[in-house]
Amino acid sequence: MAFREIRRYGDPVLRTRTEPVTAFDGRLRSIITDLLDTVDAPGHAGVAAPQIGVGIRAFSYNVDGEIGYVINPELVEVSEEQQDGPEGCLSVPGLWFDTPRARHAVVRGVDLDNEPVTVSGSGLMARALQHETDHLDGVVYVQRLDPQRRREAMRQIRESDWFW
Length: 164
Description:
The protein is an alpha+beta fold. The protein has a single domain (12-159), classed as Peptide Deformylase. Helices cover 24% and strands 34% of the residues. The longest helix is centred in the first third of the chain and has 14 residues, at 26-39. The two termini are 29 Å apart. This is Peptide deformylase. It comes from Saccharopolyspora taberi. Fe cation binds at residues 89, 131, 135. Its cofactor is Fe(2+). Belongs to the polypeptide deformylase family.
């Protein structure tokens, strides 16, 4: 089991768009195993590859007892109906801010055998799918906040003992 250290806000890997996976090999299997091991911890709803320092398009999720992963995910559908509720991030530990997200989302990608995978959900699953896909595009959830919430989030981040 390889529980990987989570990169924190301020690390450039979190603000860099990831590259699609093209090699379905042992290295990829190892990364996916690490993502699954890392997400399988209390309080972890999702872990994107950049959060463990790897710049590839892959993430794992752990929502309501459903644990899985998606390689080369693309957000292909989001509902017009919105949810605005508390959201946190392992890369921004201890801070939660109301963040607008679509109530329902669908992600399509592939598995380790390069076979198609579709993951969809509402509520927390929709939030996790959007949040993790954002990470793969170099977006951290605080960037999605309205200007007033973002200023407050950045103030709290700068004052955090983990922020460098």
